[in-house]
Every structure is written in structure tokens, then in C-alpha cells.
Amino acid sequence: MPLEIDDVTVRYGDVTALNGVSLSVADGETLGLVGTNGAGKTTLFRLLVGHESPDAGSVQVAGHDPTAGPAVREAVGYLPEASGFRAALTGREVLRFHARLRGVPESARRERVARTLATVGLADAADRPVGDYSNGMARRLGLATALVADPDVLLLDEPTAGLDPNGVTAFDRLVGALAERTDTTVVVCSHVLSVVERLCDRVAVLEDGVVRERGSVADLRRSVGSDGAPAADDTSAGTTLDDVFRDAVHAEPPVSLGGESA
Ligand SMILES: Nc1ncnc2c1ncn2[C@@H]1O[C@H](COP(=O)(O)OP(=O)(O)OP(=O)(O)O)[C@@H](O)[C@H]1O
């Protein structure tokens, strides 16, 4: 498995951010991680890129311990929730910097940067300063920085937050095409259920540092009923998942998503 999290606990002083979390994601699979604020999503991503170490349990990403060295930097592409770029640099300069940082060999760098800019639809804007980019363009440049080293595992933290409906659609198409045409393993985290629903095969619901539910989005929807209330014939759903879903549904942006898939 490219991604294995086994019984992981992370504590910050008195706060237990993750409490015995186990998750695995297969080659080419797209997993959604949903949870309310403070559920532990960012902590989980920080573990996967080696910015955090577990207090208990183990993490393996593309066969490596993420804290063990630079190998994981090359195997994992990470789009953080906010990725500020220096406004004066061009998109191409930003991407060349990330390619070097992520171990793309000098001889391949120019071509790889150009190809990645084209993949995210920024070829025409490559030599414009990033300060002139729209939010959607900056987000796509962020995705390009995550993709430039051809990662085995792609981690996307709230990937469409702050984008307008057109930006959301364009971003979804891009990630959808990636998931379909490559065997990149993708983890998308969001507090908005619809974001992971559009992009993911399988979802895990994280609450207070614990995985409460996992399954396909259809399974989860069935277990809470289509209006967000627990299904009448399902007494196993409990109130916890219901609360998480209500929260996710209420947090949804007012965006019409019908018929947008590529
Ligand atoms: N550096 C830190 N020091 C102390 N507590 C922390 C730290 N980072 C996270 N926490 C706590 O750990 C818990 C999980 O936080 P985390 O940021 O992982 O949640 P999240 O699901 O990403 O939330 P959000 O959706 O708000 O970004 C929270 O209670 C948070 O306050």
C-alpha cells in the first residue's frame, strides 16, 4: 500500500489530536478525509509529510517513514491549505524552485516544469508574475508544485477553498483526470462533504481525532439519509455521524455543481 497509517496517536500537551487512527490507501485510490474544525485532518497530513511524528503507532508513505529523510519529499506531493508564493516571481520560477527542492534532476527540470504548467493550464501565464494570478490560477500553481516531482502520493488540503464556481469546476476536472489517467494515490481533506464526494472513491470521517466512519460516499449518505437526517431503518448511524454530516452540509458554499463533471 502506498499509504499506511497504523494505530497512530499524536498529542500536543493535553490535547490528543489523533487517537488510534488506522487508515490505508491503495495504489490509484482517491480517499476523502472529512471532519469538522479541529478533527485532526491537518495533523494527519503533517504526519504524512514528516512534519510531525506519532507519539504511538506507525506511518509509511510510499514505503518510507516520512520523518526518515528526503525520499518522502520526492514521493509525496502536498498542496497545503494556504500556499503563499512570492508575488514578484513568475509561475515558471516558482515551479523551477519547487522542482529543485523536490529532487527533480537538473537535466529534466526545464521540460518537467513546462509539462506541469501545461497540465494545470498555466502554460500561457507561466511567465507572468504570480502576484497577477487570480485565486484559481494560484491554486492551480499550488497543485503544480505538488505534481512537479511526479509523486506517488498526492495530498490535497481543502483544495477548492476560496475558489469561485468556475475555479472549483476547473480544479475538480483536473484532479478527476489525474485520478483516472494515472495511478497516483490521492488523499483529499475537507470539512465540506461535497468536495470529497466529487473527487473521491472512499471517505473516512474523522471526529475528535478518531475515525468514526469509513466507506463509499453513497454508503455514508445512505446511513444518514438523503436529507442529512439518520435513515429511519438505520439505527446504527448514531448521532455522531449525523452531526458531522449536518456540519458538512451547512458549511457547503452556495455553488451549483450539477453537470460539471468532465
Ligand atoms: N501545534 C499545536 N499545538 C497544540 N494543539 C494543536 C496544534 N496543532 C493542532 N492542535 C490541536 O489538535 C487538534 C486537531 O487539530 P488539526 O489542525 O489537526 O484539525 P483540523 O481537522 O485540521 O482542523 P481545521 O479544519 O480547523 O483545519 C485541535 O484540537 C487543535 O487545536
TrEMBL record:
Check the record and name the Pfam families matching this protein: ABC_tran (PF00005)
Question: GO molecular-function annotation terms?
Answer: ATP binding
| Keywords attached to this entry | ATP-binding, Nucleotide-binding, Transport
Q: Which top-level group of life is the source organism from?
A: Archaea
Q: Which residues form the ABC transporter domain?
A: 3-233
Return the similarity comment: Belongs to the ABC transporter superfamily.
Designated name of the protein: ABC transporter ATP-binding protein
Organism of this sequence: Salinirubrum litoreum
